[in-house]
Amino acid sequence: MLSRLVLRAAPAALRALPPPVAVGVLHTTRPLHTTQQSLAPVPPLPEKGGEVRHGLIPEEFFQFLYPKTGVTGPYMLGTGLLLYLLSKEIYVINHETVASACILAVIIYGIKKFGADVAAFADKLNEEKVSAAQAMKNEAMQALQTAIEEEKKEQWRVEGHTYLFDAKRNNIAMLLETNYRERLMMVYNEVKKRLDYQVALQTLKRQKEQDHMIQWVEKNVIQSITPQQQKESIAKCILDLKALSKSAHAAV
Amino acid sequence: MNLSFFDQFSSPSLFGIPLILISLTFPALLLPSPDNRWVTNRLSTLQLWLINLITKQLMTPLNKKGHKWALILTSLMIFLLLVNLLGLLPYTFTPTTQLSMNLALAFPLWLATLLTGLRNQPSTTLGHLLPEGTPTLLIPALIMIETTSLLIRPLALGVRLTANLTAGHLLIQLISTATVALYSTMPAISLLTLLILLLLTILEVAVAMIQAYVFVLLL
Fold first, then answer.
1. How confident is the model at residue A42 (pLDDT cuts 50, 70, 90)?
2. CB-CB: which of A98, A121, A130 is closest to B39?
3. CA B203 → CA A101, A181, B103, B164, B165, distances in Å?
4. Which sequence ranges are marked TM in the entry (chain B) (predicted)?
5. Domain segments of chain B: what residues?
6. How close, in Å, is residue A88 to chain B by CA atoms?
């Protein structure tokens, strides 16, 4: 019955505690959990630990004593306590005291000297982790951005494709036209050649006929020249020549 | 409270209950429990970095099969580190000053490495007993020597750890007693105090103890 009371009152009590304590309690009692996440909405943990003064005493203690005893209150308490322990020999000073003083000196020296560096190192490790992930995220975003731009460019290119196709079409039409004309030309030339051949053939035939006829006429004429006619023509020629020579002499 | 010099080494017991077990668990208080956060606080980050460093150091000479030892060797190293460091605080008891505990740590682990070696590759293990390039005359003697050194290893490990820590603590006790006793005659004090400080910083070579311990365990 009491356990049931505790179980019922637990969530409210847990939420009333400050967050680090609440999470601590939650973690410690985890083996006692029977269901999953029964006290589930855990408040998020703070990023830094609580403030401490002199590395040991939480700041809340000083704030707690401040209203009654002011600023020096806790220190007076500490000093009084220490003197009480020493004077009543509740704490005996022996060799361990000296040893503890030495080790404390070493520890405090170490912390003072290397504390900031170690903290910076730890922060750097964390920072690297986070920045690596961040860099990946940024890269991914950048890659997607460039992909978008490339896509837009491709779309613009596609718009230009119509012009390209028109030009190509014109080109091809021209080629076809040229080809056609060339073939026309060829046909014309071929036909002309054939016709020229026929013409040349006819001319040749006419020529041959003419030559043949001339030769036949000459042959017949030469055959018809009798020897008597030959003598008469030679005598005539001599007379003509004499007459010509006379006229030539006279001219000179 | 009159302390003799060896009171600090007696195993603490309260009403007859040996408290050594509790003192063995104290180092665990110093280690933050791993949280389910991705970016942890500084202590967790440093702890993670340190464990990574130690594990890498231990495991790089070993082949894949030897990586099974990573967990136990790293945790052994961290445990010894913390126990020795905590023992430096005043009025604390260091469990590793007890020879019983160190031998209890050394013997089983050493035996495990020996038996693993013998079972998986017996000829190589036996071959380790003879270093390479020894002249033929020395072989019998050398084998005897190597066997002896092998068999004495756990004893050496345990006693080394005990002796180092006990000696260190005793020295601190002695010198601080001398300081306290000589307090009435002033000048010698400051010198002795400085000596203690120096000794203490060298005693934080308790960390190196772990290195020595674990490195010897490597096969």
1. low
2. A130
3. 15, 108, 22, 9, 9
4. 12-31, 69-89, 101-118, 138-156, 163-183, 189-218
5. 10-218
6. 14
